[in-house]
Specification:
By secondary structure, the chain is α+β, with helices and mostly antiparallel strands. It contains 8 helices and 6 strands, in the order H-H-H-H-E-E-H-H-E-H-E-E-E-H. The longest helix has 19 residues.
Length: 218
């Protein structure tokens, strides 16, 4: 109930002060969020529409809490220059994997997949990778900068279309078959595109106490 009241309070005050969030801003934040997606993090569970609603709510709340704060342009530009990595999204691929011990087992996997078997079910049943088997093989979004996956995964993913799986890939502990769920194109955001986000971030860091909706209840 408290969460429902929080949402209503933020919505009403956003209307009062004519604060809106564009779809472009939400999609940009969603792309950043996806690029950091970790399937083993339960707090990130949910579908994309849930994520969009949460992003919109968070931005409205931050705008309300910082609407009277002015940050010098020079300070915002310095922040942008010093945090370039925050605004550069590398080409990323949302992948799942099934790892088996032998190439013969991997070829058998392909037969089952071609026959209509579920990739997630086969990962649960047959993958020897203890970290991803229980999540249906999901390893989240990875890029060539990711040191936890073989570069051969990225090369194979570039050749796949959404919903397709690879030929067997030799890995340290056997053979892997990967499936592509989604591809994020590489993107660099300009200062003008993110200046409002930077203003909010600096303003929130300067605020005393915790940054919560509780301040708006009165």
């Amino acid at each position: 109930l408290r969460e429902l009241v929080n949402i209503k309070v933020v919505e009403e005050l956003a209307k009062k002060y004519d604060i809106t969030v564009s779809d472009d801003v939400i999609e940009r934040e969603l792309a950043v969020y996806k690029s950091m997606y970790n399937p083993l993090d339960e707090e990130q569970a949910g579908n994309e529409e849930d994520w969009r609603q949460q992003i919109r709510y968070s931005i409205l709340l931050e705008e309300l809490l910082t609407r009277d704060v002015t940050i010098p342009e020079k300070e915002m530009k310095a922040f942008y220059e010093n945090n370039q990595d925050l605004y550069n999204i590398a080409e990323s691929f949302h992948l799942s994997q099934i790892i088996v011990k032998t190439e013969a087992e991997a070829m058998e996997l392909l037969k089952e997949l071609d026959g209509g078997s579920s990739f997630e079910a086969l990962a649960l049943e047959k993958s020897i990778d203890e970290f991803t088997a229980n999540s249906g093989g999901d390893i989240g979004f990875v890029s060539k900068e990711n040191e936890y996956v073989p570069t051969s995964y990225i090369e194979a993913a570039k050749q796949l279309s959404k919903g397709e799986w690879s030929e067997p890939i030799k890995v340290d502990n056997g053979y892997a078959v990967i499936a592509l769920h989604e591809k994020l194109e590489g993107q660099t955001y300009s200062y003008e595109e993110v200046k409002e986000q930077i203003r909010r971030q600096i303003a929130l860091e300067q605020m005393e106490g915790s940054v919560t909706v509780e301040q708006l209840w009165d």
